[in-house]
Write a structure and sequence with these properties.
Layout lengths: L7 E5 L4 H12 L3 E6 L2 H9 L9 E3 L5 H15 L4 E4 L14 H29 L2 E6 L12 H21 L4 E8 L5 H6 L5 H8 L10 H12 L10 E4 L16
Parallel strand pairs: 1-2, 1-4, 2-3, 4-5, 5-6, 6-7
């Protein structure tokens, strides 16, 4: 549906999960894609999976390191001549009850999920403002809208990302730069299948029945939303958060075979 031929795209958190699929989506649509993550070997593996990524640059960098990100964008400017689209996908968290979470733990989650996107967006702004055009899509979460038991810092960071999106959209919109957020709900990445559902088809089916559409999401659902917001079709959309969550939660379905 989308044609990004010639568009220059940087995807963070590109080494696995949703980020990996976003990379493939833009590559398939003709974009020049650059991949960023902390693990170079995994980036090279992702690059090798798609024939249109043969010339794609990979950057092993921490999104929380302002100097490292500045170097990445200097290289993008030299090799690509600029950037058209930034996808702030890198993020992460760990489970801890709010009463047990240390201030350092709280700060570390905020840094990767909120400070990182800010550093990347600010670096992209330098190039996008010069060319008077650009698109930034942040990857949020329903945890930023709903309560997030066991992930208080993650929920707070993703809520902050929504507000930052609106502020950047307001400040940068007049310069031709659109900033939006895609907020996924439960998405069946390989990690989710393994960790959350123990690769059990019955667990996955049962969890899917709690969504009003009757299933859990798949990475392609998020990719389509990202491509839409990055495309000219969304030219009049700025500062919004698009929830890709399968609709409202319905009453849980009791399945005696999977209840422990």
């Amino acid at each position: 549906m989308y044609n990004f031929t010639g568009k220059r795209v940087l995807v963070t958190g590109a080494s696995q999960g949703i980020g990996e699929h976003i990379v493939y989506g833009f590559a398939e649509a003709g974009a020049k894609v650059a991949l960023l993550s902390r693990r170079e070997e995994k980036l090279l593996w992702v690059k090798a999976q798609h024939p249109k990524l043969v010339e794609a640059p990979v950057y092993a960098a921490d999104v929380r390191d302002e100097h490292a990100i500045a170097c990445v964008f200097d290289d993008i400017e030299r090799n690509f001549g600029g950037i058209d689209i930034l996808i702030n996908n890198a993020g992460g968290s760990f489970y801890a009850k709010a009463a047990d979470l240390s201030p350092n733990g709280f700060a570390s989650v905020l840094n990767i999920n909120l400070l990182g996107p800010y550093i990347l967006s600010k670096a992209a702004f330098r190039l996008m403002s010069e060319q008077r055009r650009g698109v930034i899509v942040n990857i949020g979460s329903v945890a930023g809208r709903d309560s997030a038991p066991g992930m208080v810092a993650y929920g707070a960071a993703k809520a902050g990302l929504v507000n930052m999106t609106r502020t950047l959209a307001t400040e940068w919109g007049p310069l031709g730069i659109r900033v939006n957020t895609v907020a996924p709900g439960p998405i069946l990445t390989d990690a989710a299948k393994d960790v959350l559902y123990q690769n059990s088809a019955k667990r996955i089916e049962r969890a899917g029945k709690t969504r009003s559409v009757g299933r859990l999401g798949v990475p392609a659902d998020v990719v389509e939303a990202v491509l839409y917001l990055a495309s000219p079709s969304a030219a009049f959309i700025n500062g919004t958060t698009l929830y890709v969550d399968g609709g409202p939660t319905v009453a849980p379905v009791v399945d005696q075979e999977v209840v422990e």
